[in-house]
Amino acid sequence: MPHYFDESYSGKVFIMSRATEEEAQAVIYGMPMDYTVSFRPGSRFGPNRIREASIGLEEYSPYLDRHLEEVAYHDAGDLMFPFGNAQKSLDIIEDYMKDLLKKGKFPIGLGGEHLVSWPVIKAFHETLSNLKIIHIDAHADLREEYEGEVLSHSTPIRKACELLGPENVYSFGIRSGMREEFEYAKASGMHMYRYEVLEPLKRVLPDLAGGNVYVTIDIDVLDPAYAPGTGTAEAGGISSKELLASIHEIVHSDVNVVGCDLVEVAPAYDPTEQTAIAASKFIREMLLGFVK
């Protein structure tokens, strides 16, 4: 079995992580990669900061009336990557995810830049039929390349469309992208909902009932007033309250969520830590809501 993690690591884990991987229903894992970002680096430090911020959370969710003691989950730590080697890092994520899915675990990923979601989607595609994506983000991420580089944090959703079929990809909150990205979304048949998340999500979820859905959330869907600690902040976003409500809308639907991630937390740009604090709460709610 490959060694995906530094077994000597003794740092922070997400609050109340107590089960071994073998005992766990769900596994939290970090993907500390930010090698392809086009503006501000630093999201490789996001996973550990989210863990540290989680210590301030209550273990009980009043939204869901569930306590973290009700879910057996294991925080495996951060995957070990060859620094600067994007392709090999993506391969490591994909191999690890295939192993995790063979064991029947529910994966919860902490990014890292958004490109790290791409190998996870690939692994799910090989494992499950009829996979669909709920993508919540400020950016379309539909480029084929960025400055000639096909491995870019601006490309994962385009790659997902090409792999799964654009009709199986649902993007919410989008307020930034090239003209060509919006033209592709319109022509391809993918489902793109601009600016808002909660209301279009409510309309769409009945169509996804019973299907296998992977949820990927870029923290920059929030307005910078709520999440300044991200690499490519974009004005005009939603509030933390709306993102919480959107997560709960998915929880209470008939959608079969098979895994999720939250990416692009870059702690260096937020000395108040409000971004990491919000991210840790979103992870708590997804953990309690998505893991049945």
UniProtKB/TrEMBL annotation:
Its cofactor is Mn(2+). Pathway: Amine and polyamine biosynthesis; putrescine biosynthesis via agmatine pathway; putrescine from agmatine: step 1/1. GO terms for molecular function: agmatinase activity; metal ion binding. It is an enzyme of class 3 (hydrolase). One of its GO terms (biological process) is spermidine biosynthetic process. It catalyses: agmatine + H2O = urea + putrescine. Its EC number is 3.5.3.11. Binds 2 manganese ions per subunit. The keyword Iron does not apply. Transmembrane segments: none annotated. SUPFAM superfamilies: Arginase/deacetylase (SSF52768). Mn(2+) binds at residues 114, 137, 139, 141, 218, 220. Keywords: Hydrolase, Manganese, Metal-binding, Polyamine biosynthesis, Putrescine biosynthesis, Spermidine biosynthesis. Catalyzes the formation of putrescine from agmatine. Belongs to the arginase family. Agmatinase subfamily. This is Agmatinase.
